[in-house]
Amino acid sequence: MFQKLVSHNPDLKLLVEKGYAVAIDGGYLLVRDIPYLDSTKALQWGAFVAKLVFTDTEHFQQDDHQVFFAGSVPHGLDGRLIPNLGGGAVQIELSAINQDVKVERSFSNKPKATGAFANFFEKIESYVTIVAGPAMELHNVTPYTFRVVESMPDSVFKIHDTLSSRAEITDLAKTVSEDVVAVIGLGGTGSYVLDMLVKTPIREIRGFDGDMFHVHNAFRSPGQLNLADLGQSKAAVYNHRYDSLRHGLVLKAERIDETNAELLDGVTFAFVCIDSGTARAEIFELLAKQGIPFIDVGMGLQRKNGSINGMLRTTFFSAQTARETIDRGFAPLSDDAENIYKSNIQIAELNALNACLAVIKYKQLRGFYYEEEPLVHQLFEIGDMKIVGE
Fold this sequence. Notes:
Helices cover 27% and strands 23% of the residues. It is of the alpha+beta class. The protein folds into 2 domains: 2-153, no CATH class; 170-389, Rossmann fold. A hairpin with a 5-residue loop joins strand 3 and strand 4 (60-62).
């Protein structure tokens, strides 16, 4: 993959040909073996790190004129701090394969003539002149080591995730990277939960639904309708829809019950997205028995005074207190004949919102999002657009 990127990006090729020790880490370009002087003019070695913005699977461009630096503050031949570097202290989390590169600060130095670098080669060359120049002159060293460090970290994504690096939240993205998440039910809300999860770096996502994909599903699920999808299993439809995006997606046209509970082996978190209370009770028992924490979603809708009103529910069941939470009756374990949601009305916006609340809660539990108060049960009322919880 690295060589493919080199062949499609002339500035990367120039860096390699000149002898820089170049590597790619997700949405970052790494240039190692950068010599510099510390405050005593002793020789030190650091690395430049720059954000990549992939325009497709094979081409990338710069984000801005700045770079990050793994190393202490560089000094000049006079023993003073190198001026006009700007930036400041910062930390960037790289993948495990590049954990030896500890980013400590950023530099911001625009080229005077144009105010912007034409490409990565021009950017790295400029910062090498400023930062490494004094060490190269005093110690007769060079950053052109021709060292091969082209190894790229494994990723669950088949395309490059550059938004995490641009936003400098790669450390937060790792909070879910070891999870194996099950989505039980791929209907209205479950399909939106799946859509959001496949775009996170979760190691493995398992989805379960024994139903077929029919016309009403096309109106309450994300993505484009392919007419060939109609009559296929939901598992097959969504597997085809997301296969080009990521690895680690296992969708099965099966209902989860006691006869196939082994399909949940290894699962670290689950979402229950079904509208049958009796089936929910059985799944709750299976998840509680296996010690799998889970979130259950649901909605109760009624048509009153001509308009639809009701509530969306998000309830969290921890591995330690699942049975206690079940006994509190937050989630109905029997079927409600008056709930008009089951009549297949098209309310994709409510399905999507219910999914959003559930996925946000999951990410709060993992530390990705801030949570002021650890709520177990949340209700969103349509009529007054308020969320209450306990």
